[in-house]
Design brief:
heterodimer; A: alpha+beta; Chitinase A, domain 3; 2 domains; 6-stranded antiparallel beta sheet; 6 helices; 17% strand; B: 760 residues; alpha+beta; 37 strands; globular
Chain lengths: 238, 760
């Protein structure tokens, strides 16, 4: 299972910001340029796409600009075999750089990383943040019944690690009965906000999953966990 | 008739204000010259008549089916569609008809409709989905509850009616409605025990019967402790009916203001409907515990449909003019004009919207008077509602200083599009320029920093995100205030989003809920804010509409009250009062103070209406649906024992009513200096406090000084020799304050002899 298809904005942001996160050379003041806005946009574009990291010669870079100009004029040059290889090489370098940045962002032993991750998740997916720190977004199921803390529910849960890619099968539930009180604290809270046939995307900060207790194998200790929940039914206690 | 003050030098006028009607020794001006009786021979001006005609025309041309609320007209139109509908469509139409019958006040017909739906379902052998089952049963329960409310709270209204938790005189004498509601809700909860909406309504129904909590089945009881106040505030009795201010109307706004400069706060209220009942009304404070309605004499007849009111002084004559805001929530049917009413100084008003260049037809609920460009004239920012393809950008009207305005929102970069429910002005970065905060129903909050002139225009920058303001996602009223007296304006914005009243029940029960929570943002003094809602005890699902703040107990810390609800008849939730505990936490004092009105709460204003030194609270009550009218309330402050100070500021280079002026009172309390900060303005975005500042001083027995920052000049004026428990007039640049000896009286706790005629 891969949550990236559900969460494209963060992925795109991570890739696009891979180089932007690198401070690189200090920005110079925009020269007294008659079209300073466009010059500024050009620098921004080049920075975001990592052009400055490619190490091309002045002549290579001018040729690259010629290609852009030709396309802009409606007469693009054909893609030759070497250009295709170069494009792959550039894409690979961009991907590597993005992965490096992401690895750094996922090092939750660093102070403030969990908070930053949660804040970014809330912003990107338009989630709400509860007082406990749970990030949640609920698609209502059409009824207004909510399970209480003493109820049993039928639940599906798909979980992935904070990289939004690595499945956490040990945390998965498939239309399974569960006592609300027995769920992880963050899931307990989320389920009580849901109604039958509703779904939710929740991001559990470590304090609302395994906290300072033992963490299951395969779940990166101290990291947030993303869960897609479906509440099928509230099983009324006899 | 214009104010005689205008013929006099301002210094003289100020002293006259001080002496007017008050009989102070040493002032030779005869009271009748300066405190003339209101004009009884005023003839409604043609401009006002044109506005009245325009309102009627727009309403008559609107399509009832596109309005969410014109139920009386909708029922036959919906019924006409039944014949051509397929079974599912027919069912849907009949559910709609039942709802609109209820909203139109035809309870028996609504119940008959539910009977027919049940029969229709049996005929089709349909087993409705759980959601439809609860919809139908809740609809029935609401019919019965509404019948009980109408028979008791409305037709036999008393100060305890619909006051949560219902007790005393609020217990229904005619119990048929609530008994039937209990039966239906019990059936519903037996089938669907997780329906928190039904559980909430069941507890309310038992309250109306006087059988709460004893008779509520334990498994569905919401314990009284859940509603307990967190501070033993003394009860504030509702005396509106005793003084003739219990106006019975739909949702609307309120202004408490001294419209005629006699030192007494008058009352103006509006209602958002379009019938005679929804007339904009004004009541003159007689200074003896009575009020006289002067709507007709004031030239206001026919001006209807105001949802919110804001006072300013567009022509800088020192008299509060009034903005009447219209069209909110009506979507494409909400293209009504707002009105600017010029206060003529003799308790009459003239609609000057068109001549001022303000005639526009956009749905709006909120606006802010502020002098954004520091020229001494109050400008106006109006936020509008956009929905779907109906885009209505916000408008910034620059005051030209000649009675007209020029719209310049696009030039200044503030022609924002959204579903805006509130706007307030305040100087969050203490740079002397007023900034703006906007609350959007479902979009980002905006903090527009006033950056000053940029080329030929003025520049604002939205710094909300950088400042750390990121919610709540769905919100309604908002305000700037310095709740912790640190000299920096903080921001409060309340959430407005629930699935149904079950979310309110969940919040009281301490259960997780996705209902939108309030946010209190503490100003860090460096351009950023910190969300301190949880630490302050305010991360709660208030579901607020109207709101304002004041100082209930004169302790120098600002408290606040929110009017709550939504159009749904099931959203019977208490309006909520919160006491500020030393600038750190807020305590819910709703039940102790007697503020928990269950009917829909809208415009709120704090003001010392009886001039006894403590602030009373006026609440405009009534819903959106055409029969969801209710009586407004006036909560009389029982007294606090703390000290106070009243300041009436008069700008010279700053606008004359001093909107935006900052006040720092340095009082001596228990031998130490204590600073209390206030800003001149109407307060929160829905409801309007008086512009004169009524400041609690706690136990301070002396005032060292008052510092006033005048934004136009950037000068801070220091005034000394003021005594607690007095009122003063302070003019910009004038070293000494003038004492105002305001006439006080006692608000009657019982109806006048002979009985009071309720205002319907």
């Amino acid at each position: 299972m891969n949550f990236r298809h559900l969460l494209p904005p963060v992925l795109l942001l991570s890739a696009a910001s891979a180089f932007a996160a690198d401070p690189g050379p200090a920005s110079a003041a925009i020269p007294d340029h008659p079209l300073a806005t466009y010059a500024s946009l050009g620098s921004s574009f080049a920075g975001d796409t990592g052009l400055a990291k490619l190490g091309w010669s002045e002549a290579q870079f001018n040729a690259f600009l010629d290609g852009i100009r030709a396309t802009y004029r409606g007469q693009p040059y054909a893609l030759i075999e070497d250009a295709g290889r170069l494009r792959q090489e550039v894409q690979e370098r961009l991907k590597q750089a993005s992965a490096e940045v992401e690895r750094g962002q996922l090092d939750f032993s660093q102070p403030g990383r969990v908070e930053a991750y949660m804040k970014e998740a809330v912003k990107q997916y338009k989630l709400q943040l509860s007082d406990s720190g749970l990030a949640y977004g609920i698609n209502e199921g059409g009824s207004n019944f909510h399970p209480g803390p003493g109820d049993t529910v039928v639940l599906t849960c798909e979980a992935v690690a904070a990289d939004r890619e690595t499945p956490l099968p040990g945390l998965a539930l498939k239309e399974q009965r569960a006592k609300v009180a027995d769920l992880l604290p963050g899931l307990n809270e989320a389920v009580q906000m849901m109604s039958p046939r509703s779904s939710a995307l929740v991001v559990l900060p470590p304090d609302l999953s395994f906290g300072s207790g033992p963490w299951p194998d395969g779940v990166p200790r101290g990291s947030p966990i993303l869960c897609m929940l479906q509440l099928h039914e509230i099983v009324t206690p006899p | 008739m214009r104010s005689p003050f205008l013929l006099l030098p301002r210094a003289t006028a100020a002293r006259i204000i001080a002496a007017a009607c008050l009989g102070l020794a040493g002032f030779a001006v005869a009271a009748p010259e300066v405190c003339a009786p209101p004009n009884d021979s005023f003839v409604q001006p043609e401009s006002t008549k044109r506005m009245v005609a325009m309102l009627r025309r727009i309403y008559s041309e609107a399509d009832p089916l596109r309005s969410p609320f014109r139920s009386e007209e909708k029922v036959p139109l919906l019924r006409a569609r039944l014949a051509k509908a397929d079974p599912a469509g027919r069912l849907d139409l009949k559910v709609q008809i039942a709802l609109h019958q209820l909203q139109a006040g035809h309870i028996a017909e609504a119940l008959k409709e539910y009977d027919e739906i049940d029969a229709y379902l049996r005929e089709l052998h349909w087993m409705p989905e759980p959601m439809l089952q609860t919809t139908l049963l809740t609809g029935r329960a609401l019919c019965h509850l509404r019948a009980g409310e109408t028979a008791n709270c409305l037709l036999n209204h008393n100060p305890d009616s619909c006051l949560f938790p219902i007790q005393g005189g609020g217990v229904h004498q005619l119990q048929e409605g609530s008994r039937a509601a209990v039966a239906v809700l019990t059936e519903l909860l037996t089938k669907f025990p997780n329906d928190l909406r039904a559980r909430w309504l069941l507890n309310i129904a038992y309250m109306t019967l006087g059988e709460y909590p004893a008779q509520v089945p334990a498994k569905w009881l919401i314990e009284p402790a859940r509603f307990a106040s967190e501070y033993p505030l003394a009860r504030f009795p509702d005396v509106a009916g005793n003084v003739g201010l219990d106006v019975d109307s739909l949702a609307g706004g309120v202004i408490l203001e001294d419209f005629d400069h006699d030192g007494l706060l008058d009352v103006m209220v509006s209602a958002w409907g379009f019938t005679e009942r929804d007339q904009l009304r004004v009541f003159r404070n007689n200074g003896d515990g009575t009020f006289t309605e002067r709507t007709q004499q004031a030239g206001l007849e026919g001006l209807v449909s105001g949802l919110n009111l804001r006072q300013g002084d567009y022509n800088n004559d020192g008299y509060a003019d009034v903005l009447v805001l219209r069209g909110a929530w009506l979507g494409t049917e909400g293209h009504y004009p707002f009105s600017l009413l010029r206060n003529n100084g003799d308790f009459t008003f003239t609609d000057v919207t068109e001549e001022a260049g303000l005639l526009h037809l956009k749905p709006t609920q909120s606006a802010a008077w502020f002098d954004y460009n520091g020229d001494g004239w109050l400008d106006l920012y109006v936020v509008n509602e956009s929905s779907g393809r109906d885009s209505n950008a916000c408008e910034l009207y620059r005051n030209n200083g000649d009675g007209t305005f020029t719209e310049c929102a696009a030039q200044c970069g503030v022609d924002l599009v959204g579903f805006h429910k509130g706007v307030v002005a305040g100087d969050f970065n203490n740079d002397g320029r007023p900034d703006l905060f906007l609350s959007d129903r479902a979009g980002p909050k905006r903090l527009l920093r006033n950056d000053g002139p940029a080329g030929n225009a003025w520049h604002f920058t939205d710094v909300a995100e950088a400042a750390g303001i990121d919610g709540p996602l769905h919100s309604f009223p908002c305000w700037f205030w310095d709740y912790d007296n640190d000299g920096w304006e903080d921001i409060m914005v309340t959430g407005y989003g629930i699935q149904d009243v079950g979310d309110i029940a969940a919040d009281y029960l301490g259960r997780p809920t996705s209902g939108m929570r309030a946010r209190l943002y503490h100003n860090n003094g460096d351009g950023t804010f910190t969300n301190v809602s949880k630490a302050a005890g305010l991360s709660r699902v208030l579901h607020a509409m109207g709101a304002n703040f004041g100082d209930l107990d004169n302790d120098g810390w600002l408290d606040f009250y929110v009017g709550t609800g939504d159009p749904d008849f099931a959203t019977l939730i208490p309006s909520r009062m919160f006491r500020n505990d030393g600038g750190k936490r807020f305590q819910d004092v709703t039940t102790a103070g007697g503020f928990g009105q269950l009917q829909k709460g809208h415009g709120i204003a704090f003001g010392d209406i009886d001039n006894d030194g403590d602030q009373d609270v006026y609440s405009e009550v009534g819903g959106a649906a055409e029969t969801d009218n209710y009586h407004n309330q006036l909560f009389a402050n029982p007294g606090t024992g703390n000290h106070w100070l009243k300041l009436q500021l008069e700008g010279v280079r700053t606008n004359r009513v001093a909107i935006g002026a900052r006040i720092k009172v340095v009082a001596i309390e228990q031998g130490a200096e204590r600073a209390i900060y206030r800003t001149v303005g109407s307060g929160a975005s829905f409801g309007a406090n008086p512009l004169r500042q009524e400041i609690g001083l706690g136990q301070a027995a002396a005032i060292d000084r008052v510092e006033i920052f005048w934004p136009v000049t950037g000068q801070t004026q220091v005034v000394r020799n003021l005594s607690p428990d007095h009122a003063y007039h302070i003019r910009e640049g004038q070293a000494a304050a003038d004492l105002l000896a305001l006439k006080s009286f006692v608000l009657p706790l019982t109806p006048p002899s002979g009985g009071h005629q309720h205002h319907h």
